[in-house]
């Protein structure tokens, strides 16, 4: 037979139940705070649009393109604007291995020209040489003030080629100082050969994508004499939304490409389509004018924040 409780007894039981559940919740929160997770809900994609003559577009509209994210077509965007990145964080990677000995002095001359002719005074500029077993920092963040001329001319082209390790090294350094108003940029001088890296080409691309750095490649192969090595460089540039240049095009062409992309980039954001931690391959396709071309990173890695 059920016992009827008075209103006063009922209120007392409810209060006791509330206090017990609150205490239990607080006790558990201390145990689980270190495993709290949240997920990224928005994708931010920076890209450059060009016409059939490879000229950048200044009047692109959101209805002119669609994003294909892991084979899911996205045309409803949260935002679409011009990029707000106004300065550059530049790392120049100099191949100083024995495989580039025949044109090493031209490479050094081009690197010094890049440093001296940098048109934006506020940029963060670093130089890293790779030859032997590991990359070596020549100057970091203040190359215009500390003039790396003597150090670069003191280098000799010798040793093995840790190309992929150098890209990973530069990408990690860039990630450590990431600023949303600064465009991370790697200018890579290389013949595309790698003889000693612990990392693979895929590892190098992944690190660059995670750092959001665009890689502008200068291929040191004269007359493109090594197609397989040059294909490594094409792959790195394409996957990061950068550009590929031949050695004959030189430093001036590289600077014009970097600056053109800085001022012509767009940013689109959209809701994360799939909640998982896998790599999301990304493409941008035209919707009306099929002559349009889009250059952006090849995808992104969804990360879970603790």
In the CATH hierarchy, the architecture of the largest domain is: 3-Layer(aba) Sandwich
Q: Total helix count?
A: 8
Order of helices and strands: HEEEEEEHEEHHHEHEHEHEEEEE
Q: What's the shape? A: globular
Helical proportion, percent range: 25-40%
CATH class of the largest domain: Alpha Beta
Low-confidence stretches: 1-39
Q: What's the number of structural domains?
A: 2
Overall average residue pLDDT: 84
Q: Could you please say which CATH topology of the largest domain applies here?
A: Rossmann fold
What's the CATH H-level homologous superfamily of the largest domain? von Willebrand factor, type A domain
How much beta, percentage-wise? 25-35%
Overall structural class, as computed from helix and strand content, comes to alpha/beta
């Amino acid at each position: 037979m059920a016992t009827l409780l008075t209103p006063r007894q009922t209120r007392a039981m409810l209060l006791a139940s509330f206090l017990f559940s609150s205490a239990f919740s607080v006790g558990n929160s201390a145990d689980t705070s270190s495993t709290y997770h949240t997920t990224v809900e928005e994708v931010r994609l920076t890209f450059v649009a060009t016409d059939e003559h490879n000229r950048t577009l200044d009047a692109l509209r959101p209805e002119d393109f669609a994003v294909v994210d892991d084979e899911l077509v996205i045309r409803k965007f949260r935002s679409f604007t011009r990029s707000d990145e106004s300065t550059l964080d530049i790392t120049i990677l100099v191949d100083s291995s024995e495989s580039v000995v025949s044109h090493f002095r031209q490479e050094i001359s081009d690197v010094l020209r890049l440093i001296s002719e940098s048109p934006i005074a506020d940029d963060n500029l670093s130089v890293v040489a790779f030859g032997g077993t590991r990359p070596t920092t020549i100057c970091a963040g203040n190359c215009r003030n500390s003039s790396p001329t003597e150090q670069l001319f003191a280098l000799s082209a010798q040793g093995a080629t840790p190309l992929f390790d150098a890209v990973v090294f530069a990408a990690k350094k860039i990630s450590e100082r990431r600023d949303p108003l600064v465009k991370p940029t790697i200018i890579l001088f290389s013949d595309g050969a790698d003889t000693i890296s612990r990392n693979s080409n895929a590892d190098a691309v992944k690190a660059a994508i995670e750092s959001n750095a665009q890689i502008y490649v200068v291929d040191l192969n004269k007359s493109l004499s090594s197609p397989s090595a040059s294909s490594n460089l094409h792959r790195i540039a394409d996957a990061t939304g950068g550009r590929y240049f031949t050695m004959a095009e030189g430093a001036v062409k590289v600077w014009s490409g970097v600056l053109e992309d800085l001022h012509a980039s767009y940013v689109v954001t959209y809701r994360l389509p799939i909640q998982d931690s896998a790599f999301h391959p990304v493409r941008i396709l035209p919707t009306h004018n099929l002559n349009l071309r889009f250059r952006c990173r090849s995808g992104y890695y969804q990360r879970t924040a603790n």
